[in-house]
Every structure is written in structure tokens, then in C-alpha cells.
Amino acid sequence: MEILIIGLGRMGANIARRLNKGGHKVFAYNRTQEKTKEIEKEGIIGVYSLEEIPNILLPPRVVWVMLPAGEPTEEMIETLTKILSPNDIIIDGANSNYKDTIRRASILKEKGFRFIDVGTSGGIWGLTEGYSLMIGGDRETVEYLRPIFETLAPSPNTGWGHVGPNGAGHFVKMVHNGIEYGMMESLAEGFEILKNKEEFKLDLAQIAQIWRFGSVIRSWLLDLTALALEEDQELKDIKDYVPDSGEGRWTVMESIELGVPAPVIAISLMNRFYSQQEESYSAKLLSAMRNKFGGHEVKKK
């Protein structure tokens, strides 16, 4: 099957590579042409102008957009509607807000295009291990694209699925990432407790390896934790700053809208906010309050 990948960031480039290795005819476009030239060396066909698309891809054309959520994706989809033809297929494989996806799907349907949202998980390991794909859209189009999804997934029958109409794929991926926040926070807190039990002189890398096999908390995240701890248990070169992507925030907001309690995910998100502060005004104010009501010592800079 022919497919054009737009956006050659790490994930987009690896998706192009995996499809290429799977025998598909893969085209690639990136705003920065150097990345396109680089990936051409691997047998992927470079595209240097979006206006070329109608002439180089056979209809129905399949275009996978792998750009940051928000304006970059919005602008690219709008551009594609002026270049592609009705019945062509646009796939959004990035982490778009599912509400934007529903809106875009409605607009694209009116214009005669087919639109599929694919929540994509797998990170830098997807190229070798395969991607987890959560797919939203009409069943007929998903079935047409089955060869693509079977190639990208860990196996043809595992790790991917049509989860519902447009928006459902990105909604499921959003909640997936919210769960990821909670799991990561729990592992991080647990290992910090172990590290601070200094009299036992615990080897955290060894403990992570023990837990990886047979334990009820064994997981890929634990595998990656073990790798990090083997490299440096003190994490000397890593700043205690943890970015938060939109999906964690959106998951918490959705839990509020639905009235579904999600305290673990919410707290893990708030802890990421804490990590992003150069200094905490609220913590300083708490210290000042303790000093005023109880005369407790205040540490000065």
C-alpha cells in the first residue's frame, strides 16, 4: 500500500521506516528538507512539495499526519484539503485532543474526505517492538487501512484495534497517557522511599531487576526504570523537571466533566507541575504561616 508520512520527528520517521521495512511504498515529507533527504537514504521516497501529492500517490491517497497537536496539525489538515481529492484518506496519528478530532472529522466528511484518528503509543521502541494503535473512524476505512496497521503493530493480531467512531482513538490514547502518569509516579515514589532507607544500602538497580520477573508490578515501565537505574542510580545528570503533555491534563479535565474520580492521575499531574517550578511560592508561604502561628524556624536563602 502507498502512504505518505508528513512530519519526520522521531516517531514519524520510525513509522515511515517500519512501514518501509514491511513492504509498503512509503513517501515522506518534512518542513525541514534535511530530514527528508536523510530518510531517502533508507529507500523511502522524499517529497519536497505538498503540491506534488496528487501526481505521485495513486487514489485513494493515504496521508498520515504526524505533527504536534494543535495549530501544526490544524494547519496541515487544512492545507491537505486544498490539495487532495474527495475520498482520499487523512490519518492523524499524533496526540490531538479528541474534541478537535470530532470537529475535524465533521468538516472533512462534508468536504468528501475520509478521516481516521490513530492514538499511537510505543515511543522510540516502536520501530523494533511495534506500536500500540487505538483507532477511531468508520469501519470500512479502517479495514481498507488494515495492512498498514498490521505492519505497525507488534503483530498482525495484537496491539491494535478499531475502538469506535472518530475521536474514540484519540480519547482512548488520552486516557492511556493519564494512566501512564499514575504508573510512572508510583514507581518513582517507591524507588525514592527505597533510596532514602540509607541503613540498608539498597541496590536499586538490583531491586528493579528482581521486580521485573514474577512480580505483580512487572511492566515495560519497570523495564525502562531498570535500564535508567543501571546507568546511574544517583541520576546525577538529570534535572528534577518533568514536562507534562496535554493528554494528562485532558484526562483530568475529562474526569471532572464526567464526574469520575481519578485521584491518582490528578495527583501525578500536580506533581509534574511541582517539578516544573523553579521555586514554589506556596511552599514558601506555608513556611511563613508555620512561623507566624507556631514560631517554627524559617530557612532563609
Any key phrases for this structure?
single chain, 51% helix, globular, alpha/beta
SSE topology sketch:
Blueprint: E1 2-6, H1 10-21, E2 25-29, H2 33-40, E3 45-47, H3 53-56, E4 62-65, H4 71-81, E5 89-92, H5 98-110, E6 114-121, H6 126-129, E7 132-136, H7 139-144, H8 146-152, E8 160-164, H9 168-196, H10 204-212, H11 220-231, H12 246-258, H13 263-275, H14 281-294
Parallel strand pairs: 1-2, 1-4, 2-3, 4-5, 5-6, 7-8
Antiparallel strand pairs: 6-7
Provide an overview of this structure.
By secondary structure, the protein is α/β, with parallel strands linked by helices. It is 51% helix and 13% strand. It has 14 helices and 8 strands. An 8-stranded mixed sheet has the order 3-2-1-4-5-6-7-8, with helices on both faces. The longest helix has 29 residues, at 168-196. The termini are far apart. The mean pLDDT is 94.
Estimate the global geometry from the Cα principal axes. globular
List the secondary-structure elements in sequence, H or E: EHEHEHEHEHEHEHHEHHHHHH
Give the % helix.
Answer: 40-55%
Determine the strand fraction and express it as a percent band: 5-15%
The low-pLDDT segments are none
Cα gyration radius (Å): 23 Å
Number of helices: 14
For the secondary structure, the number of strands is: 8
**Class by helix and strand content?**
alpha/beta
Distance between the termini: 63 Å
Mean pLDDT: 94
Give the spatial strand order of the biggest sheet.
3-2-1-4-5-6-7-8
Largest sheet: 8 strands, mixed
